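Sharing a chain and its predicted structure for anyone who wants a worked example. Both blocks are below, sequence first, tokens second.
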Amino acid sequence: MNRTQRLKTRLFEMDDRAVFLSRMEILKECSDRYRDETAGIKFGHTLQTMLSRIDVVIDEDDLIVGRSPEVVPNSREERWFLEHRRDFFHVPWFWTSGHLTLSWERLLSQGLIGIRQRAQAHLDSLTGRDGASLSKRDFLRGALLCCDAIAGFAERYAEAALSLAQKTTSRQRELELMRIAEVCRRVPEQPARSLHEAVQSVWLVDLILHTVVGARDFTPGRMDQYLYPFYERDLAAGRVSPEEALELIESFYIKCSEIIGLADQNNARKRSLCQDSVQYVVLGGQTADGKDATNPLSFICLKAGYLLLKQPTIKVRYFEGIDDEFWLEACRLARAGGSIGFYNDGVEIPAFLSVGVDLEDARNYSHYGCCNANVPGKEGSLMERWHSVPKFLELVMNNGFDPVKGEQAGPQTGDADSLGSIDHLMDALRLQIRHAMEAEREMYPPVPEADDRRSFTLESIFLEDCIENGREWRLGGTKYWHKSQHASGLATAVDSLAAIQTVVFETGDLTLRELRDILSADFEGNEPLRQRLRNGCPKYGNDDDGVDALARQIADIFCDEVVRCNEVPHSVRFWPEIYSYHNNKWLGGELGATPDGRKCGESISENQSPNYGMDLEGVTSCLKSMAKLPFHRTPGGGTNLKLHPASVRGESGLVALSDLMKTYFELGGQHLQLNIIDGAVLREAQEHPEEFRTLSVRVVGYSAYFTTLSERVQNDLIARTEHSI
């Protein structure tokens, strides 16, 4: 068993009961000691205290070091503290919301010393004594304290490695530990010089943000781009071989899984602020000048995905000039069950441009939360709002009244008798969506409230422009700041409109008022009609141009109204996306029966996909329907696709899989994540979980170990339409 195999084996020996108890104890102490300090000073001193006192952990076989000193609270004192001091598990002044991509290039090229020099220079240039200047001083002083704290933490790891080197009886391990000490003495304080130093620098900062400060979804981003210069130089100088580089990347991947526990985020057991954190490694895509970004390290990062861990999640960026060999290898990893998803530069980059992102930044896009894309290093944390498109249609049919909540929730857009065509319904739908977006816009001020909201976030010192602007990202420190507005349940809305078109406007079997009243009664006494609506009307997902035109029209209306909110400058821009995450379940719980035959309270459709079981014409027709959506306007969003493994077996199956995805993207599709697994295997895993402990599956923009999922999510995965190519 080699090093990587041993490290992976130990991952599955983790205990999700373990907790970072010493962190809570130090937070309690610092809450009292620094009570009267300003936000940046309080945060900086607390981080210094934390990083100077917590145990540093170097495990056997570690090449990349850094792990939080977690313990299972067994003693009475430990259990009492955990139960009665829960308010120190998460404190409002020492936190981060996560879900972002740092400027890793800046860290590796300048080190903490460069951040410190820039912060000191801007601090020295401040002359005013007004509120804004005081806020900037506090932020910059906090940045200086944090840089010192992190540099000291790395030095403690260097000392620990030297101490272990003196005790080991293995000459090989002694040399490894001495190398680790040399690396930690260098980074992240200084700019990285080698691949080992670069990976270690990234991990130590990532570890602090994930576990010490505490948050989910800090993402490595485009690792094959910012690490490649180090690998290229090391390889040319004979300092590293491809096999040694693979071992370093695999060690990093294992560290990403080490901190998050085994359980899924929706069936959480681990008590950690980074429980089940999703961490995205983005590979391929384009360079700043539009050329193929694939390089030899791209292949190595892809090969490390054969660890088949749930984290990190690999995102491969497809474009028409992608290296063919790399593309086939990515498809091979997907077929093997790797945690991998695919995005299409052909629509993603135009979508970024459509919401005001500069071309160079758009070509550098990354991901920072399930199916949400971002500009790495140049914007802060993920912010999002979920909108039920079928709920907007329900409001249309009830003149703005919400029959589930029993209140007027939208504008009066006409009673049922006045809506005499699909065009009238669409006009009313637009007004309901506009009303919701305008209400959302009113939640944000035209300019950031810098003077009366003094706070500090550690991640801001690793983002572009925050040091120069003297403010964190939440106060407008970065170039971009956006909130994603998600259209959820698209297929439910489309199928509902197609049903209305059929039974109301084409056959005239019902008036819209009669249909509305039947829906209000949840189809009671009208089961034959429900079955007709469900099984006898056209459905989205079957390459039906008429239905797909409705889908595109709805999506365009949603995009229009979201982007319309950006016409007046505000502190936060809105981006439209077609995406539901898991929220199609609870959004369905707030919705009455719908014209597609769905009963009250049932889930609405998921993400960009057709309703489960309604895509009856095969995978090609399903993808062709989705490709007609205006993805060139939506920078994020996702699609789950379930394929039977027999259909992609062998080299011919691999080529078929490659061609299927290529064709989808060339037709204008945005995203695919694949579960290539027999539904019978999933059902067996439900019955015998002990035999499938390491089975990783794609859920919604992330992976999970199937047996840790709730029964509801397991059943949802099983229920997805299983296609063959």
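Comments welcome. The radius of gyration is 26 Å.
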